[in-house]
Structures are given as structure tokens and as C-alpha cells.
Amino acid sequence: MSETMNTTLEKLGVGRITRHVFMCAGPKCCDGEQGQKAWEALKSEIAAQGPGEGGGICFRTRVGCLRLCQQGPVVLVYPEGTWYGGITADRVPVLVQRHVREGVPVGEWVLAENPLPVAGPVVPLSGRS
Ligand code: FES
Fold first, then answer.
1. 46 within 8 A of 60, measured Cβ to Cβ
2. What is the pTM of this model?
């Protein structure tokens, strides 16, 4: 693996990620402007609130579509596999505080839950042979 790739992986915290938040910010599931505001709020809240108890890194990714295409902005949080609907910018601080930092899904906004099977300990890519 190239030194550039290792540097990028280290910079992103790959290997120390404990939670991954995906957001679809429209345009089918919600108004594009509403979605953009939610996405900006998600980025800033994760940065401002930092990791929860136990540290770790929360990765966030904006996706083109999570295939629900209604009740957006739609958010999907792993490792719990919690699907949320209607995560507008004003709801993002509560979502980040309760789910990302405290690990407790915000029940009233949950659409569905689908945790993935545990695959084993996280191994940094740079540590693989
Ligand atoms: S456009 Fe957001 S889920 Fe499809």
C-alpha cells in the first residue's frame, strides 16, 4: 500500500471508527434545501460534540439515496443499523447527542432497526498482510 494511502487512512481514522452515520439529503425523500441544511448540521454537530464515552471516531457519509425516498432526510446509523426518517437540521443535535455520543437510538424518530452481524474485531487496513 502506498504511503499516500496509509496517510489518508490514518488521517480519516480508519481502524478507530466506532460509528458510521449515512445521510440521504434528497432530493426525492425531502426538499433539497432542507436536506442540505440537515447535512451541514450533521457535519458540524459531529465535529462539535466529538466522540462519546470510550472515544472512537464517528464517520459520516452523504449518500445519493437510501432507497426509501420518503420521510427524509433519511439517516442510517451503524453498527446498530438504525434507520431514521425526518431528520431535519433542528433534530440533528439531539440525534448526535443521544445516538452518536450516548449510543441510545432516538426512538420516536426510528423507522426500522437492522443491526448487522458482528464480524469480529476491527483490524486497521495497514495491519493486514
Ligand atoms: S432520495 Fe433520499 S432515500 Fe431516496
1. yes
2. 0.88
Is the N-terminal amide bond of 79 cis, ω within 30° of 0?
A: yes
Contacts of 69 (CB under 8 A, 6+ apart): 28, 29
- Boundaries of every domain in the chain: 30-75+86-110
Q: Which of 28, 61, 83 to mutate to test the pocket of ligand 1 (most atoms within 8 A of CB)?
A: 28
Average pLDDT over residues 62-82: 97
**Which ligand 1 atom sits closest to the C-alpha of 70?**
3
Q: Could you tell me if the CB of 74 is within 6 A of ligand 1?
A: yes
Tell me the C-alpha distance between 82 and 123, whole Å.
24
Amino acid at 67: R
